[in-house]
Write a structure and sequence with these properties.
With 385 residues, the chain is of the alpha/beta class. It has helices at 11-18, 30-38, 79-82, 84-95, 101-107, 118-126, 140-152, 212-216, 329-335, 348-357, 361-372, and strands spanning 2-5, 24-27, 42-45, 62-65, 130-135, 156-163, 174-181, 193-194, 207-208, 222-225, 237-239, 255-258, 287-289, 324-326. It has a domain at 2-195 and 358-378: Rossmann fold (3-Layer(aba) Sandwich), CATH 3.40.50.150.
């Protein structure tokens, strides 16, 4: 049995499915639990921190964990970083069979911080054959602490920062990853893509990064402005077919313009045909603007002007104005390497939140392949958009 803590909508589960594997996921959020269920993944809706490990004793092969990142993300208040000494101490205590979570939780600035220590309770009690864990980059020191205890218990470990774009995901999403196994040596998964591919000593070459425009079928030359449609000018800009900065809650003001680019101080030149931004739960607030409607761009949640049919009513797309469109859940899902028809449940805001919080399935598959020894050549890719 493979247990997935903090499953969310099923990013790890879809990665496992690519490898012919399956898990049972624990998730407390109703909308996310409904999504994974609709996708055919077995799960339990519960509070991971309160759920007993004894039910899985002697039955678990792999453990996956992606604790909530809100307390640690640079886009949030980052209470997790202030709570890091408390979390570190809790990991130490749990690794030695001492459970002081209740007392420590009361002292944390953000009670979600302690969820990053929760996997150690499961590891100490269950000692699975292999482990895969994922979080925002600032959690890497904590993963290194985990690795030290796992090594003492006989695990081979690797932890570091991976960029999802290096594994075919059309998004520059950097995450702290921990891989461990009791039965095989582990290391970082070999990348399949590169920003600037070059021949190696054997004449082989990696694939170039997959761009946002390529993944979504957009035309080239579209530029994202981070200031958006505000009355005051300014804002940094980046091309949709070049690298971008990570999305944050301020992404609500981003717009897309065709063929426009502002050169100026602080705006670094980027290379062409590269991945999209990191998708977060604020993707529903992104409005893409261009000087003429692009037929490959879909839009939702906007009022249709005359001459444009509402897609929800059977048309192709709907626009707030002849030159403004919003990214759809399906498009955001593709940028996370989900299939475009993945059955996200809940309100539109909850669906975008799930997409943004999920582990990209394609990245997950590469990580699990290392932990389990399953070759990626056996992976079944998600359907293309």
């Amino acid at each position: 049995m493979i247990v997935d803590l903090f499953r969310g909508p099923g990013g790890w589960s879809e990665g496992l499915r690519m490898l012919g594997l399956a898990d049972i996921g624990l998730e407390w959020d109703t909308a996310a639990a409904r999504t994974s269920h609709a996708a055919g993944h077995l799960g339990i809706q519960c509070d991971v921190a309160q759920y007993p490990t004894a039910l899985f004793a002697g039955r678990i092969t792999g453990l996956i964990a992606s604790p909530p990142c809100q307390a640690w993300s640079r886009a949030g208040k980052r209470g997790g970083l202030e709570d890091q000494p408390l979390v570190t101490q809790t990991v130490h205590d749990l690794a030695h069979g001492r459970d002081n979570r209740t007392q420590v939780r009361a002292a944390c600035k953000d009670e979600r911080s302690l969820l990053a220590a929760e996997p150690m309770r499961w590891l100490y009690d269950l000692r699975p054959e292999w482990v895969c864990m994922e979080e925002v980059p600032d959690v890497l020191p904590l993963w290194k602490q985990y690795a030290l205890y796992l090594q003492q218990w006989g695990y081979s470990t690797w932890c570091g920062i991976l960029n999802a774009a290096d594994y075919g995901v059309p998004q520059t999403r950097r995450r702290a990853i921990l891989i461990a196994s009791r039965v095989r040596a582990v290391t970082a998964p070999a990348p399949t893509h590169a920003k600037d591919p070059a021949d190696d000593l054997f004449g082989d070459r990696l694939e170039p990064w997959v761009s946002m425009a390529e993944a979504l079928g957009w035309t080239e030359g579209l530029t994202v402005n981070t200031r958006g449609e505000r009355k005051t000018p300014g804002g940094n800009e980046f091309p949709a077919d070049r690298p971008s900065w990570a999305l944050t809650e301020k992404t609500r003001s981003w717009v897309l313009r065709s063929g426009q680019s502002i050169a100026g101080e602080g705006r670094a030149e980027r290379q062409p045909h590269e991945p999209a931004v990191t998708i977060t739960g604020r993707a529903d607030l992104c409005a893409w603007v261009h000087d003429r409607p692009a037929t490959t761009v879909c839009a939702t949640d906007r009022i249709s002007p005359p001459g444009h049919r509402n897609r929800d009513a059977g048309g192709e797309s709907q626009f707030a104005s002849p030159d403004t469109v919003r990214i759809t859940v399906a498009e955001a899902a593709v940028l996370q390497s989900f299939r475009p028809d993945y059955p996200f449940q809940g309100t539109k805001s909850k669906q975008f939140e799930q997409v943004g919080n999920a582990v990209p399935p394609l990245l997950a598959a590469h990580i699990v392949a290392v932990a389990t020894g399953t070759p990626m050549s056996a992976a079944e890719p998600a359907a293309a958009a």
